[in-house]
Amino acid sequence: MHQSRIVITGIGLTSPNGNTLEEYRQNLLEGVARIQLIDMRYMGQVPAGVCDFDPKKYQSRKELRVGTRAGSIAIYSAREAIANSGIDFENFDKSRIGVYIGTTEHGNVETENEVYNISKFDYDTKFWTHHHNPRTVANNPAGEITINTGITGPHYTIGAACAAGNAGLIQALQMLRLGEVDFALAGGVSESIQSFGIFAGFKSQGALGSHPIDVNKTSRPFDKSRNGIVVSEGGCIYSLERLEDAQARGATILAEIIGYRINSDASDYVLPNPERQAECMQQALAVAGIEAAEVDIVNTHATSTPMGDIQEIKAIREVFGDSPTTYVNNTKSYIGHCMGAAGALELAGNLPSFQDNIIHPTINVDELDPECALPNLVINEPRKVDAVKVILNNSFGMLGINSALILRKFED
Known about the structure:
Peroxisomal Thiolase, Chain A, domain 1, 3-stranded mixed beta sheet
């Protein structure tokens, strides 16, 4: 059966170190991280990745009052993706646009904040906001996009833990191939820094990162002294189309999605399973119809936890061996862990490599952990190569959900 080729024609994002792809990419190449200390109730100061975008660019004060932080991140990223795509949005049939947004923690953030607020009034529920229910339903970030933009096609969020950004893109690809929509907005968002529970949870697991001197070095995947995650917020949304539709309107094509896979460890709530991760990558390669050696960049999920990084490197070794043409990098060393937005944001940081043939490094590696060593691990300095034609993006999550997404430089 013929399957339509699916391409990316626009990107919109906000991250802790950039609010456009250009700014974000420049900071990745220059080694600029913008992690900061924030005050978290009951815990004092904690490292976090905070986005500094202007929500009023696309929302009124009333909309901001009624909506959520995740919704604002989603609207900003979606509107930027629409603008970047160059589509005639005003005249496009809005019933043929789908919105598929990956997320992790949405809902509990709003409830937690409301409980805290009414605790100041002896838990009198008359102080409980009447906006609570629409704020907490799981489809909120995607739904806020449709209200803001007038899109009347399908919208929902995909709960896939920290693999959710990749899952959003995969869902959009499938719906475009099924002919359910003609244009899709897809990716991931996270409002995680609004939640005390997320920080406390990682703290209780011994997985909340710290650094004795420099907060910007808190997230340090593969470094021997790494000690945990930096919780971050962020968003990245792409516009996706069938190739023939994009070409018909003369769109600039940024990349083509050629392979994907989602699978499950079925073994542990938290500890990753390298065998299943390896299978996920191998199955994505099979869907793409390419060999491992054809992949130029593997962007790792590695979160800066001692065991998680080692497990993923084991999986990468299993799949790629000592491939001399496959380079490995990491983006969380700059922006921390953006949870539901992680996969989508990290992919965006690597897509410009198709044009400039430069691989951004993993930063903050002062002493490489021998158990994380790979021949072509790009650390601390960018690497210029002859060509980048294929990128594999790993994104994994709790309860053992794994995702791998493969993109190719578009060549007609």
